[in-house]
Write a structure and sequence with these properties.
D-Maltodextrin-Binding Protein, domain 2, three-stranded antiparallel sheet, disordered N terminus
Length: 346
């Protein structure tokens, strides 16, 4: 049984509830991801403790992440689910950030994808009608420029879309609701939220998918997302519009942040001073979770066709995306200052 090694080390969570903090609102991709994993973690942690998802949204994911950094205990009963938004604020030196990824122990890294879609009110019937958006004004509901929304903002800039941004939303689920109420006309959702919430809208003729973020192969080439093989990548859309591959500083920045935001999109972390035996207990539970028949049956539909990394593999991936080329950082910071009068770092 997978729990015996953990119990032999004296780690037992019987009667000790686990707090899984998610620094975003309910219904978004991070929330769907957390609520899928929570009961499975409960099943495989020693003592089968209740794992409760606690949403702590605000400030593009920085508020809840700051609270975890300040308050989380090292007894294994406090874990945080980060997202690309938490990472982007950190990479860009956002003055609101009081956390440091190097202070955390990464247990699991879940790559994911995402799909950009538009309201059917715009008149498109498929992504092949992309040129029809050239004379349209698009409206996007955003959590903020240091959130994962930086990826679509860069993508829309690369594609030459005329896009207006409405800031102040606390999660991607808010963007979904804004689409449902026709307050905005373009949105994206990460894979789990798209499969659960947007696919039915597409089937009902209320939304039209445009593209996925794709995946990067071992040679660094962008490929179609295996979860959405019928959807083009940004690179394909750009060539459809302009007859050549994308290039330039905007595209370079897009590649950096789309890789950082989706290859290691969801991280499950413990405080860095958590004792090794507790870390190993969590890793044993996660490995058992990944073998669980319920996980194997439901994960492809809910999370998509991506391979979750655990332990040292997850740590290595996380470390590779928590650094940024200074020139790319300067370009993005200058662009945000010039276009939106937003200054993130002193």
């Amino acid at each position: 049984m997978p729990l015996r090694p953990a119990l032999a080390q004296g780690v037992d969570f019987t009667g000790k509830p686990i707090d899984l903090a998610i620094p975003f609102s309910e219904g978004g991709g991070s929330d769907v991801w957390a609520r899928f994993h929570a009961p499975l973690l409960s099943r495989h942690l020693p003592g089968q403790p209740e794992v409760t998802v606690r949403n702590d949204p605000g400030s593009g994911g920085t508020r809840g992440s700051n609270a975890f950094a300040d308050q989380a205990s090292s007894d294994g009963r406090s874990v945080l689910g980060t997202s690309g938004s938490s990472l982007f604020a950190y990479l860009l030196g956002d003055f609101r950030v009081r956390y440091d990824f190097s202070d955390w122990t990464v247990l699991m890294a879940s790559p994911t994808g995402g799909v950009v879609y538009v309201s059917s009110d715009l008149g498109l019937t498929s992504w092949r009608d992309i040129a029809d958006l050239r004379d349209k004004t698009l409206v996007f509901a955003s959590q903020g420029v240091t959130s994962l929304d930086l990826v679509p903002m860069l993508a829309f800039r690369v594609l030459g879309f005329d896009t207006q941004y409405v800031f102040g939303y606390t999660g991607r689920h808010d963007g979904l609701e804004a689409m449902r109420h026709r307050e905005v006309n373009i949105d994206y959702q990460t894979t789990s939220a798209y499969l659960r919430n947007v696919a039915p809208m597409v089937a009902a003729g209320e939304a039209v998918p445009l593209m996925s973020w794709g995946v990067v192969d071992a040679e660094g080439r962008v490929q179609r997302d295996p979860t959405f093989p019928d959807l083009p990548t940004l690179e394909e859309l750009y060539e459809q519009l302009y007859g050549k591959p994308p290039s330039g500083p905007e595209y370079d920045a897009y590649r950096v942040f789309s890789s950082a935001g989706f290859a290691a999109q969801k991280l499950l972390v413990l405080p860095g001073d958590t004792p090794p035996e507790i870390r190993e207990t969590w890793l044993e539970a996660i490995r058992a979770l990944r073998r669980d028949p319920d996980y194997l049956a439901r994960a492809p539909e809910i999370l998509g066709a991506y391979r979750t990394l655990v332990g040292d593999e997850a740590e290595k991936l996380a470390r590779s995306v928590t650094e940024i080329d200074p020139e790319t950082r300067r370009f993005v910071l200058q662009w945000l200052a010039d276009e939106y009068s937003i200054r993130l770092a002193e």
